Amino acid sequence: MKLHTSKAKSYAASPRLAVPHLRLIVIVLLATLLVAACGGGDEPASDAEEAPAAADTATPVPEPDPTDTPVPVPTDTPMPDPTDTPVPEPEPTNTPEPEPEPLPTAAPQAESAAESAELPGTGRTFVIVAEESEARFSIDELLFGQPKTVIGTTNAITGEITVDAANPAASVIGPIQVEAGTFITDNDRRNGAIRRFILQSNQHQFVTFSSTELSGMPDSVAVGDDIEFEVTGELTVRDVTNPVLFIVTLQVISETELRGSAATIVVRDDFDLTIPQVPNVANVGEEFIVEFDFVARAQ
C-alpha cells in the first residue's frame, strides 16, 4: 500500500509523465469514435434520425424572448412653452376718424338772436310805474321825550331809466321827480309842517334827481341779472341842488321790466332844511335817509 501511494505522488509531481499520458487518452477516444462511426452505418435509419433530435434536445437553441427586446422609451421632448413664442398682436389699422361736419351757418345766427333777445336793448327806455313804486324818507327825533323814527312815504313818482345794454356804464337814471306835497307820515300836523315849512311844496312842487355817473356796472346786462352799483347825481330840494350818491340794486326781470331800489343819506343843512319848533318835539336828527323802490317798464 505504501508503494502505490508513492507512485501516485510521483506522477502528480512530474509534469513530463502527465502530458504523454493525456495524449494517449485523447488518441484512444478518437479511435473509439471512428470505430463507432463506421459501425453505425448498419443501424436502422430511425436510430440515425433520433440522434440529431437528441442533440437538439441536449443543446437547445434559446429562442429570443419578445419581452427581452427593450421597447424604446420615447424621449422626453419638451413641449414648447406658449409664452416662449409670443403671438404677435394684430396691429390696429390706422382708420382716420371722420372729421366733424361744419355746423350750418344758420345756427350761430339763431343763437346770436337768442342772446340779443335776453338783453334789455341798447338805449332802451324804461318808465317808472308810480302805482308800483314808492319814495320815502326817515328821520329820528324825540317825541314827548321818547325816541321815534318818523317815516314819510309817497308813490307820486315819475321818471325814466335808459339802459345801454352794450355799455351799461353809459346808462342814465332820471330825471326822477317826487311831488313834495304828497309825503304822508303818521301825524297830520307833521304832514302839514312838512308841506308848508320844510319842503315848501306850494312853491317847489318837485324833489328832483338826475344821474351824472354810474360806477360798478357790469360789461353787459341780460335777463335774470341782479346788479348792484353806485349812481352819482344831483338832488334838488326846493331851490338847492347838491351832489349825492345812491346805492342801487337792480333786477332785470324781463326784456320789458326792471325792478330796483336806491338809497342815500342826506344832511339837512346841505339843503337848508329847517325844522320848525314844535312843542313836545326835540332833537330832530341832522341826517335823514332817502330811499326809492321802483318798478319800470319799457315803452
For the sheet with most strands, the description reads: 8 strands, antiparallel, barrel
Radius of gyration: 71 Å
Strand content: 25-35%
Helix % is: 25-40%
Strand runs, count: 11
Low-confidence stretches: 1-17, 40-62, 64-74, 104-118
Distance between the termini: 179 Å
Listing every helix as H and every strand as E from the N terminus to the C terminus, the arrangement reads: HHHHEEEEEHEEEEEE
CATH class of the largest domain: Mainly Beta
Total DSSP helices? 5
Tally of domains: 2
Give, in spatial order, the strands making up the sheet with the most strands. Answer: 1-4-5-6-7-8-9-11
Q: Could you say what the CATH architecture of the largest domain is?
A: Beta Barrel
The CATH superfamily of the largest domain is Lipid/polyisoprenoid-binding, YceI-like
Q: CATH topology of the largest domain, anyone?
A: Lipocalin
**Would you tell me the structural class of the helices and strands?**
alpha+beta
Principal-axes geometry comes out as: rod-shaped
Mean pLDDT: 75
